[in-house]
Design brief:
The structure is a single chain. This protein has five helices and no strands. The protein is mainly α. It has one domain. Helix 1 packs across helix 3 and helix 2 packs across helix 3. The longest helix has 27 residues. The protein starts with a helix and ends with a helix.
């Protein structure tokens, strides 16, 4: 069930990136980022209101405060949305999705290696296979455009 949920999350991530990039084409990259996060903030407030409406405690005794650096993810998210807003209109969405996925794999490998001391040669080979497949596909696409 978690694999299906992960696939759904990946699907809506790509859809969200395309929607955000279309918005940024209309109003500008930084304005698109602002609208993205403003709507997210309003949605979060609405969900929080509903949470309180149904008498759920947000900060109860099981709530654990994250370390200060955990909040830096929001700053990184601004860079992610802005870079996707710039890149997605310029290259095919499938390439964007695979390149973003490949970047996630490489960063995951680096974090696992540096923080946990885990290094898996097979995962590195898998990342290289994905990169090679993308390269071959891009080369085939480029040749088919020249032939037309």
């Amino acid at each position: 069930m978690m694999y299906l949920f992960a696939m759904f999350a990946g699907s809506i991530t790509v859809f969200s990136m395309v929607m955000n990039s279309r918005l940024s084409l209309s109003i500008g990259v930084l304005q698109g980022v602002f609208v993205n996060f403003a709507v997210g903030l309003l949605t979060s407030f609405a969900l929080l209101y509903l949470w309180f409406l149904f008498d759920n405690q947000v900060l109860d005794e099981t709530f654990i405060m994250p370390p200060w650096y955990a909040y830096c993810g929001a700053i990184l998210a601004i860079g992610i949305v802005a870079s996707c807003n710039v890149v997605i209109p310029k290259i095919p969405v499938v390439y964007s999705a695979v390149l973003i996925f490949l970047g996630q794999i490489v960063m995951g490998l680096a974090i696992d290696s540096m923080l946990l001391g885990l290094f898996d040669v097979y995962k590195v080979l898998g990342a290289l296979l994905i990169a090679g497949g993308l390269f071959v596909n891009a080369k085939i696409d480029a040749e088919s455009k020249v032939a037309v």
